[in-house]
Write a structure and sequence with these properties.
single chain; alpha+beta; 6-stranded mixed sheet; 5-stranded antiparallel sheet; 4 helices; 11 strands; 33% strand
């Protein structure tokens, strides 16, 4: 089992959850929203994410964290889990891959992060700043959020999957491309089946990115 997961706790969770499912592949499911963060110059300055974990992972990840036994998971009780999340995610660029004019650009360590357990759901949120802000009227900006090794399934929610923080430039809007069709998935799988073990996708892409939905800024010309 791959040990570099979202968290060390997640690795433990999946070991426990899959102990009785020897024939199944281990997975964690995440429902997500993301937001493009704009600065006071109407430039894209970061990407904010909200991830809601599946109940199976949440149940095991929370085990032992209710230190005072009051049935409520406070921010201080969840802080160690949050720190483990972010520490493990760093090796995977926090699962966030932004591109400017098709080229991958750098992000910095997360800010405004935290974790909440409410209404029976465990959710993690954080913002990754771009190393350099981007004017979406002068360059094509998009990003994908995904696990490059397919271990964790990450899917956008249906309602309002992508939003904005701050003021977007006039004449611009954000969007997320539709989920690829079954036919497109089959074509991608067939293409991959013809490649050797040393084959790499073009344009600094990786295998997980071939299946992920891009979010982008669309501006009127």
């Amino acid at each position: 089992m791959r040990q570099s997961l979202v968290t060390a706790a997640m690795a433990t969770a999946m070991s426990l959850l899959c102990a009785g499912q020897a024939s199944a592949h281990p997975h964690v499911w995440i429902s997500m929203r993301s937001y493009m963060v704009f600065n006071d110059k109407a430039e894209v300055s970061g990407i904010a994410v909200e991830w809601t974990f599946d109940d199976g992972y949440a149940q095991v990840a929370l085990d032992g964290l209710d230190a005072n036994g009051d049935g409520v998971y406070s921010q201080s009780e969840l802080e160690p889990l949050t720190q483990e999340n972010l520490k493990s995610l760093k090796d995977y660029n926090y699962f966030v891959v932004p591109r400017v004019d098709g080229k991958v650009v750098a992000i910095t360590d997360p800010v405004d992060y935290g974790q909440i357990y409410s209404n029976g759901k465990l959710a993690l949120h954080f913002t990754v700043p771009l190393s350099s802000p981007v004017d979406p009227k002068n360059a094509e900006f998009q990003y994908k959020i995904y696990d490059p090794e397919f271990f964790i399934a990450m899917d956008y929610v249906q309602d309002d999957p992508v939003g904005i923080v701050g003021s977007i430039p006039q004449g611009c809007r954000v969007a997320v491309k539709p989920v690829v069709s079954d036919q497109e998935l089959d074509q991608t799988r067939q293409m991959l089946s013809t490649k050797g073990t040393d084959w790499k996708p073009p344009d600094d892409e990786d295998f997980g990115g071939l299946f992920a939905q891009p979010a982008l800024v669309i501006c009127d010309k």
